Amino acid sequence: MFASTPKPPYYAVIFTSVRSGDSGYAETSERMNELARQQPGFLGIESARGDDGVGITVSYWSDLESIRAWKANAEHRIAQQRGKSEWYSDYVTRVCRVEYDYER
Amino acid sequence: MFASTPKPPYYAVIFTSVRSGDSGYAETSERMNELARQQPGFLGIESARGDDGVGITVSYWSDLESIRAWKANAEHRIAQQRGKSEWYSDYVTRVCRVEYDYER
Question: Do A46 and B64 touch (CB under 8 A)?
């Protein structure tokens, strides 16, 4: 459930979104998760979406270059385009360097 | 709904959790939101929790010192203690520097 991340520094992509459409979303979302896991530098992913349609997905990566390569992935680019036109009324993406972390 | 953050760099605290108890949670959560907004360096907050109990809250701050001061706030420390003993079966906190961001 939680991403099993290494000792910092590593990188996080925070994707906050509001869902507006459903058609084909679940399949593509599952496929993108599967595809992300196969990418170099992928460390893990955490996701939550409430009944109000607001969702936050955080994916973790070993370095910025892996994040750039994933964003440019051809199949992922098609999904990003559909997200923009069909699935999200709004979103923000923030790319961060994790400086320190702690657990329960 | 989305945090209105400035041009990077700024800082993010990603808090991923699993809820286990409810008693007093809503009041404290609302109070902590209100109190956080009054702290120096606070920029905004985004939150989502699904029906499976997994939640992600991201708060945004101007600098690491503001994050440390908020963690050490007396009223917040009591809430953190209750979170640990009553409200969350598990959680991870990650403190990050936002390197770049982009919107829809």
Answer: no
